[in-house]
């Protein structure tokens, strides 16, 4: 997906827009652009566009002649390409062929080809391969002197997902924005508005923001705003307090956001758990579930839908709910669930797990389950995000903004929340108070145990360096740590570009063992647990074929040390909680592999922080 930032007010906005793009660059970074509307003295304006492939730094260079502009109305965009290659001309902002309308867009116009054909038949000219340029020309085609109405009319013709900000040379005091299926919020300042994809580009200027529902259009001017539907029915917007603090999104002394967020995990989990674990009473307190307590206690099945790292957290949730709350669970790729005509019988709970709360497939799967009668819960990090607003209830991660594209503290936050959710349910179904108290006692030790594991960073870096040239790795685990192995493989893939596969350790014998050649790095999560002996056998099977064993083991385990090339000892953790600690060495391994291979850790190629398109 892309990053959008726009401004209308009384301050020159060039610098504000560039700074805003820097905060949003983690959302997409193929190319970037900015457009300023400068009054021409005749009551109209002139639009000046600068855009280029590459990062925001490249745009700053290309647009430096506009740095002294007095323009107080502008839009800016950082792109993750969906339609059309990564080229200067395909970068946003886009202007219609008459130069009247200028827009930036995040999302996909699914019927852009039909619209483009119609517009070409009506004389419109096109210069790019993008769907966004079609929208700019459609708005221009329907413009009859009222930008707000033209945007409403155009969006009524559109199918797909969009968050847009639009300017018009004939209306130098108007900025129109709208959203459907892609995130957009409007910061409310004093005599100024900042429109952005998320709060990180707004929080430096105001803490007041409007969250927009789908199909909402907002007309902004220097003395006020109006929100409406696509049919021009007036709406009352929801205003929220942005909870972000600037220092939360600053890099601080770290070289990369990913490393900062790996090291933030102990404190992030302390915040995530704060006020929610009552050890004395043996209770978990989750205020967001209050209104649905009875329905949840009587539920008969849980479906967990997510993508990527969030899916791996959901897979751990499956073990937790079945182990602790004795309730059947199925975990699904949201992208599959939404299209496979799922059977959702009564008393089913659907849980959407998502850091951003904007992942298109997860949102669609949630809507599918909700429309079929499921009670829906969100396990989400971004407050006020679409998934958090579209579920009946939910539990926020409270781990703070996650900027690094590779998800780390959000993963442990998702696992921690799913652990609390399963304890919350277990206590109301079969689990005794003492049993809950014992788990809470273990749970409260986790942040310190992660702290202790982080102290192994140098050793983990040295181990990683030994295998940095190997292009194929295996990650293997059993039980609770099978999903942890999947997560370790994803981390390595997505930032070091090394091919890695995660799987149940037993599955390796059913084919993948053929991959093992001399010296192939095979990462085993071999901590103490129910299937420890089986994992040891799997390690022996790999060793006998020349694989090199990198083991994550329980401190003091000399047996693993004797059969592995490298061992990373972590504290002794109760098995249901062990992924929270076992994942940390895998996160650091991936981080060091990426750095040693010279890659951009926070903005890996082809990736974006949240995939808000299908
Ligand atoms: C994780 O490192 C990836 N960036 C990606 O798999 C991510 O977890 C996935 O896209 C889901 O995102 P979400 O949690 O915001 O829904």
Task: Provide structural commentary.
The protein is α/β, with parallel strands linked by helices. The chain has three domains: 3-248, Glutamine Phosphoribosylpyrophosphate, subunit 1, domain 1 (4-Layer Sandwich), CATH 3.60.20; 251-444, Rossmann fold, CATH 3.40.50; 455-602, Rossmann fold, CATH 3.40.50.10490. The chain contains 20 helices and 27 strands. Strands 3-2-4-1-10-9-11-15 form an eight-stranded antiparallel sheet. Strands 5-6-7-8-12-13-14 form a seven-stranded antiparallel sheet. A five-stranded parallel sheet has the order 19-18-20-21-22, with helices on both faces. Strand 5 and strand 6 form a beta hairpin. Helix 3 (112-121) crosses helix 4, helix 8 (265-273) packs parallel to helix 14 and helix 10 (308-325) packs antiparallel against helix 17. The chain is globular. It starts with a strand and ends in an 18-residue tail after the last helix. Bound molecules: 2-deoxy-2-amino glucitol-6-phosphate. Residues 307-310, 354-356, 359, 362, 405-407, 494, 610-611 line the site of 2-deoxy-2-amino glucitol-6-phosphate.
Secondary structure: helix percent: 25-40%
User: Proportion of β residues?
Assistant: 15-25%
And the CATH topology of the largest domain?
Answer: Glutamine Phosphoribosylpyrophosphate, subunit 1, domain 1
Poorly predicted segments? none
Largest sheet: 8 strands, antiparallel
Please count the helical segments.
20
First and last CA, distance: 10 Å
| Number of strand segments | 27
| Biggest sheet strand line-up | 3-2-4-1-10-9-11-15
What is the overall shape? globular
Mean pLDDT: 94
Attached small molecules: 2-deoxy-2-amino glucitol-6-phosphate
What is the CA-based Rg, rounded? 25 Å
Task: Let me know the CATH homologous superfamily of the largest domain.
Answer: Aminohydrolase, N-terminal nucleophile (Ntn) domain
**What class would the helix/strand composition place it in?**
alpha/beta
**CATH class wording of the largest domain:** Alpha Beta
| CATH architecture name of the largest domain | 4-Layer Sandwich
Overall tally of domains: 3
């Amino acid at each position: 997906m892309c990053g959008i930032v726009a401004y209308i007010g009384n301050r020159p906005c060039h610098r504000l827009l560039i700074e805003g793009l820097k905060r949003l660059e983690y959302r997409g970074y193929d190319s970037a652009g900015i457009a300023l509307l400068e009054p021409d003295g005749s009551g109209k304006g002139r639009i000046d566009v600068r855009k280029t492939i590459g990062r925001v730094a490249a745009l700053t260079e290309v647009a430096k002649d506009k740095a002294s502009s007095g323009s107080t109305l502008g839009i800016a965009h950082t792109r993750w390409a969906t339609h059309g290659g990564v080229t200067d001309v395909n970068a946003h902002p886009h202007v219609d062929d008459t130069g009247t309308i200028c827009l930036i867009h995040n999302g996909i116009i699914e019927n852009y080809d039909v619209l483009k054909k119609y517009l070409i038949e009506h004389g419109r000219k096109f210069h790019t391969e993008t769907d966004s340029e079609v929208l700019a020309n459609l708005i221009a085609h329907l413009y009859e002197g009222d930008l707000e109405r033209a945007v409403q009319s155009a969006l009524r013709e559109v199918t797909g997902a969009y968050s847009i900000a639009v300017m018009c040379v004939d209306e130098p005091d108007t900025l129109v924005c709208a959203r459907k299926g892609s995130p957009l919020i409007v910061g409310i300042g004093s005599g100024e508005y900042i429109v952005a994809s998320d709060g990180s580009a707004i929080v430096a200027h105001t803490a007041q923001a409007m969250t927009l529902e789908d199909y909402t259009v907002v007309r902004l001017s220097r003395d006020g705003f109006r929100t409406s539907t696509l049919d021009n029915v007036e709406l009352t917007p929801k205003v929220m307090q942005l909870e972000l603090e600037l220092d939360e999104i600053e890099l601080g002394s770290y070289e990369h956001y990913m490393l900062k967020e790996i090291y933030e995990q102990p404190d992030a989990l302390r915040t995530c758990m704060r006020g929610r674990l009552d050890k004395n009473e043996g209770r978990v307190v989750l205020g967001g579930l209050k209104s649905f307590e009875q329905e949840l206690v009587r539920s008969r099945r849980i479906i967990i839908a997510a993508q990527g790292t969030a899916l791996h957290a959901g897979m751990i949730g499956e073990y937790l709910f079945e182990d602790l709350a004795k309730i059947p669970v199925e975990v699904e790729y949201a992208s599959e669930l939404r299209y496979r005509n799922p059977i959702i019988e009564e008393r089913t709970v659907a849980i959407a797990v998502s850091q951003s709360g904007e992942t298109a497939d997860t949102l669609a799967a949630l809507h599918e389950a909700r429309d079929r009668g499921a009670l829906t819960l969100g396990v989400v990090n971004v407050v006020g995000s679409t998934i958090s607003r579209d579920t009946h209830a939910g539990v926020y991660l409270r781990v703070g903004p996650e900027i690094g594209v590779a998800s780390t503290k959000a993963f442990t936050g998702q696992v921690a929340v799913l652990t609390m959710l399963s304890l919350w349910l277990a206590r109301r179904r079969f689990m005794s108070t003492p049993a809950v108290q014992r788990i809470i006692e273990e749970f409260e030790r986790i942040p310190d145990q992660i702290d202790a594991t982080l102290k192994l960073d140098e050793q983990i870096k040295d181990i990683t360096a030994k295998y940095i040239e190997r292009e194929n790795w295996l990650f293997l685990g059993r039980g609770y740590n099978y999903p942890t192995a999947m997560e370790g493989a994803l981390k390595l893939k997505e930032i070091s570009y090394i091919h890695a596969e995660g799987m149940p350790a037993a599955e390796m014998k059913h084919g993948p063992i053929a991959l093992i050649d001399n010296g192939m790095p095979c990462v085993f999560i071999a901590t103490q647990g129910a299937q420890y002996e089986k994992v040891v056998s799997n390690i022996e099977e790999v060793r006998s074929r020349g694989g090199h064993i990198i083991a994550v083991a329980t401190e003091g385990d000399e047996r693993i040390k004797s059969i592995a090339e490298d061992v990373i000892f972590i504290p002794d953790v109760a098995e249901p909680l062990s992924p929270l600690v076992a994942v940390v060495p895998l996160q650091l391994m991936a981080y060091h592999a990426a750095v040693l291979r010279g890659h951009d850790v926070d903005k890996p190629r082809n990736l974006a922080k949240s995939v808000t398109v299908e």
